[in-house]
From TrEMBL, chains A, B:
Residues 29-48 bind DNA. Pfam families: TetR_C_29 (PF17938), TetR_N (PF00440). Gene3D superfamilies: Homeodomain-like, Tetracycline Repressor, domain 2. One of its GO terms (molecular function) is DNA binding. Residues 6-66 form the HTH tetR-type domain. InterPro entries: DNA-bd_HTH_TetR-type_CS, Homeodomain-like_sf, HTH-type_TetR-like_transc_reg, HTH_TetR, NicS_C, Tet_transcr_reg_TetR-rel_C_sf. This is Transcriptional regulator, TetR family. Keywords: DNA-binding.
Length: 208, 208
DNA sequence: GTTTAAATTAAACAGTTGTTTAATTTTGCT
DNA sequence: AGCAAAATTAAACAACTGTTTAATTTAAAC
C-alpha cells in the first residue's frame, strides 16, 4: 500500500484534515496548519500548489481505496440485506475514523467552484451509488426487496442521518448523556448504526 | 405579527440569509452584505453588534414561529401517521422556503463557540423533539407504531436526508436530470418528501 | 569534495477581514 | 425655529489572509 505522497506531505494532509474538520475549510488558515504541523507556511504551496489543491489532495488521499472495499463487499456470499447492513457499517466506520473529512467532502467541497477535481469526486459518488444499486437490484430479483424505492435517495438517508447526528454532536451528547468521547463514539457504533440499518431495512422490505 | 426588528434590519437579515446560504458564514464578509443591501458597512455593527450576533439575530428571526406551527399540528384531528407526514412536509417546506438558513443553523452554527444564543437554539431543538415525541407516543399507545424505535434519531433521518440531498444539489441535478431550478424544487416537493415519509412510515410500522 | 537538485526558511506582497471612530446628516419632537 | 436623539457616512484601525520571492540549508549523486 504505497501512496503518492511522501512522509512530510502526509503529516500536512492529516493535520489539515483535523483542522478542516474542527473549524471548516474557510475557518482554517495555512498558518494554522503550518504551526500545528511544525512546518514553514511556504511548504503548503510548495508541496500542493495552493490551499484549494491541498483540499483536493486530501480528498484523493482519503477516498482512493473506498471503491475497492465496496467491490469486495458486493462479491461476498451474503444475503442482500446483510450486504446492506455491512455497507452501512462500512460507511459509518470510514466516516467516523477519518475524523471529519467527509463533512468537507460532502458539504464544503460541493460549494467550491473549482471544477477540476470536483468532476473526479462526482465520479466516485456515482461509483458508490452503482455499488449500492447492484445490491438492491439483487435483492429485488430475489423477491426480498420491494421495487418502488428510489435508489438514489437511499444514500442521502444513510449518510444524512449520520451527518446530522454528528453535526449536532454537542446537542446529542447533552440529550443522550454521552459525556465522554468514548461514550459518544460507542453510541454511534451501536445505537446509531443500528437505527440506520433498521430504517433502511424497513424501507426496503415493508409493504404498505 | 410584529417583529423586534425594523425595516432596515430586516433587509440586512434577509440579504445576510441569502449570502450565508450561498457562500457560508465564513465565506461572506460584512462588506458583501453591505453592498448587496446597499448600506454602509458600519450599519451591521451598529444594528446587531457584530457579525456573529447578526447570525444569532437571523436564527431568532427565522425560528420564532416554528414552535407555534408544531403546536397547532399536534392538536389537529389526524391519525398519528398523518401527523408525521404533515410534520415532514412542514419541515421540508420551511427549510426550502427559508433559502438556506437551516444549513447554517444546523451545521455552521453548531461549530461556533459563542454559548450565548446557542443555548436558546438548543432549547428550540429540544422543543421540536418533544413535539415529535408526543406524536409518536400517541401512535404507540394506539398500537399503530412499534415501540423499539429510538425517537431522538428520527429527526436526524428526516432532516439529514433532506440536507444531504440539498448539499449535493449539483450532483443530484445532474444524476436525476433536473436541469432547471423549478424541476429541482418540484422533485423535492414530491419525490424527496415522499421518500422521507415512506422511510419514516416503514420505520415506525414495519415489524421484523 | 564538488556539483546539482530538493527542501526549508524568513520576509515581503497586496488584499481582505471585522470593528471602531469621529464627523455629518436625517429625523422626530416641542 | 431650535434641539436632541438616531441614523448614516467615510476613513482608519490592526490583524489576518493566501501566495511569492530570493536566500539559505540539506541531501544525494558522482
Amino acid at each position: 500500500m504505497k501512496s503518492n505522497f511522501n512522509d512530510k506531505q502526509i503529516i500536512i494532509l492529516e493535520v489539515a484534515e483535523t483542522l478542516f474538520a474542527e473549524k471548516g475549510f474557510d475557518g482554517t488558515s495555512i498558518r494554522n496548519i503550518a504551526k500545528e504541523a511544525k512546518i514553514n507556511i511556504a511548504m503548503v504551496s510548495y508541496y500542493f500548489g495552493s490551499k484549494e489543491k491541498l483540499l483536493e489532495s486530501l480528498i484523493l488521499y482519503r477516498t482512493s481505496d473506498l471503491k475497492l472495499q465496496l467491490d469486495n463487499l458486493i462479491i461476498e456470499d451474503l444475503e442482500p440485506i446483510e450486504k446492506i447492513n455491512k455497507l452501512i457499517e462500512l460507511y459509518i466506520n470510514r466516516i467516523n475514523c477519518n475524523k471529519g473529512i467527509y463533512r468537507i467532502l460532502h458539504f464544503e467541497f460541493t460549494s467550491k467552484k473549482g471544477d477540476s477535481n470536483l468532476q473526479a469526486f462526482s465520479e466516485l459518488k456515482k461509483g458508490n451509488l452503482k455499488s449500492l444499486e447492484s445490491i438492491i437490484i439483487e435483492g429485488q430479483t430475489k423477491g426480498i426487496f420491494r421495487k418502488d424505492v428510489i435508489i438514489p435517495l437511499i444514500t442521502p438517508t444513510i449518510l444524512g442521518t449520520f451527518f446530522h447526528f454528528h453535526m449536532n454532536k454537542s446537542f446529542f451528547q447533552n440529550l443522550l448523556n454521552l459525556k465522554t468521547e468514548d461514550l459518544y463514539n460507542n453510541y454511534i457504533k451501536t445505537n446509531l448504526t443500528l437505527h440506520i440499518q433498521q430504517t433502511i431495512k424497513a424501507l426496503l422490505i415493508y409493504e404498505s
